[in-house]
Amino acid sequence: MSEHKTYPVPETIAAKAHITQDLYATMYRRSVDDPEGFWAEQAERFVTWFKKWDKVMDYSYQADDLYVRWFDGGKLNIAYNCLDRHLDSRGDQVAIIWEGDNPEEDRKLTYRELHAEVCKLANVLKSRGVNKGDRVCIYLPMIPEAAVAMLACARIGAVHSIVFGGFSPDSLRDRILDSDCQTLITSDESVRGGRHVPLKKNADTALTECPNVNTVVVVQRTGGSIEWTEGRDIWYHEAMANAATDCPAEEMDAEDPLFILYTSGSTGKPKGVLHTTGGYLVFAAMTHKYAFDYQDGEVYWCTADVGWVTGHTYIVYGPLANGASSLMFEGIPNYPDVSRFWQVIDKHQVSIFYTAPTAIRALMRAGEEPVKKTSRASLRILGTVGEPINPEAWEWYYKVVGDGRCPVVDTWWQTETGGHLITPLPGATALKPGSATLPFFGVVPALVDPAEGTLIEGPGEGALVLMRPWPGQMRTVYGDHARFVETYFRQYPGYYFTGDGARRDEDGYYWITGRIDDVLNVSGHRLGTAEIESALVLHPHVAEAAVVGYPHDIKGQGIYAYITPMAGIEPSDALKKDLVALVRGEIGPIATVDIIQWAPSLPKTRSGKIMRRILRKIAANEIDTLGDTSTLADPTVVNDLIDKRANQ
Ligand code: WT7
């Protein structure tokens, strides 16, 4: 079985790697035995502090008194760390390489240029009354202004909340309201795969219900026509033209908030994951340098969108803190054609390439020719993130894209974790296709038997928890600390519960098996079944909806919805279409329901709880292993669903 295949560290990589196998072992031991000493050293190495901290770490994982603090008393500014401190040594080095959707369009910004832009926008924000601690919503395409906006907020101590440009007006509205943002930075339109998306129009729609937003800064991306609200809306380029290029970097406390990022959970609306300043930056910089073995002068490309945490940590904060040249791509993998990624790698001489399994699987379908017609000789390290990668896709990535030369780092982490927690280090870790391998420094994973609640020793499978904090950990759910406690610390007392299941093999390697809560991972995008169900039941013809994931060749998981229509409503294809459109409209195109099955009734326990386990099995066509159905109020419902599934 390919699971047992192991790829040793290539000697050429180990020869100049930051972390080799022995060093990993000693450093890991130290990080666990002496976390205070270890993290103090890393914090000195990776971050420039205005004032040193009083205490390295302080925490309690007890549900009734839950808190996590790192580098308390320390003072720093993240924009200063990502920009100012590089100006003397690398002011003229490229910080951001922007590759447009259209292959003819690109831009480069040096550290000096980026610094000037960030200072100008920081002054613009200040002139509109944005103060330290205020929340600023960013709803932008993948253009350099997105990074400028993030860093401008960080420079003045404003808290950014980025909303992915693919989200709907309703999703944008909910996020703006939840964190009470009074400023929004957006653009006229975005461009992806040659198509324009009306971001400003979406924003206008969202803002009809956000009375507190008093400023909308609009970047002109396409020149498409937009509506204008006098007094509220200002053009980015006009405001920037008059802004000064110097702006002091606010002294922030290590535990001051840096950003909020909404992510889906198993219940209710998306929650605002809050990250703070000092620990996050130390962790972002350190994981970026070591997991990718980033070497000075290399061009590094992460294909994520800044609307996700991957874009925050591994396009902007980590790479720029390390003085890297970070490539930012506006487009999609198959435009103008399926060779685009590889062409961009050649064009900009990319050394490190970081993408998602869903993209790899989709490109794998297009065959080797679009890859092989490019050189890719600049590549040194490959990475994946977002969902489990199947060994076949891993092998293809390794052999075809990397020509068997480049280690593949399969990095496991979450919005909540701020950065990589389980990942190979290219010069230190032998690779097994499909395994995220071993914990990063300071990270202590464990497996818990979900039924017994006891820790599993040695090889085994269970719920993946973390036994102690790491500097990049989220600190709370914005405005709802109780939800933070309930979501992550209630189920397995004393531990942070990740929501994932995992297996540990005889070498101590971790194999993430996927979510074990009601969260779906569709093309690496996280969606709660509850959110999708809430959207579906908005339809007047829907009595009840139950959503589960099912295995999908490209997306990893697809969305499968069981719908019980209102009495007297005839199921129809037209209604199916309406429902798909409804969910896309409520959440965004990433929430496209793949399969709708009509369900005259749903399998429920006697207490009325839907048994999703059974629905998941039927959706996956695993009807031989349905398990116990005797606790159902009406077991015949199941056979009926199975018959219907077969007939659709
Ligand atoms: C969930 C977190 C972390 C940035 C992107 C997603 C899944 C993530 C891996 C991986 C297996 C992975 C997990 C996790 N996941 N990386 N390398 N192998 N699963 O962030 O939206 O917060 O989703 O993505 O299920 O819990 P996110």
Give me a quick take on this structure.
The chain is α/β, with parallel strands linked by helices and 648 residues long. Helices cover 32% and strands 24% of the residues.
Mean pLDDT across the residues is: 96
Bound molecules: 5'-O-[(S)-butoxy(hydroxy)phosphoryl]adenosine
Low-confidence stretches: none
CATH class of the largest domain: Alpha Beta
Instruction: Please report the number of helical segments.
Output: 21
> Sheet with the most strands?
8 strands, mixed
Q: CATH homologous superfamily name of the largest domain?
A: ANL, N-terminal domain
Helix content: 25-40%
How many beta-strand elements?
A: 31
Q: Under the CATH scheme, which architecture of the largest domain would be assigned?
A: 3-Layer(aba) Sandwich
Quote the distance from N terminus to C terminus: 35 Å
The count of domains is 3
**And the CATH topology of the largest domain?**
Rossmann fold
Looking across the biggest beta sheet, what order are the strands in? 12-11-8-6-7-14-15-24
User: Rg, please?
Assistant: 24 Å
Question: In terms of structural class, how would the helical and strand content be classed?
Answer: alpha/beta
* Percentage beta strand: 15-25%
Which shape, going by the Cα principal axes? globular
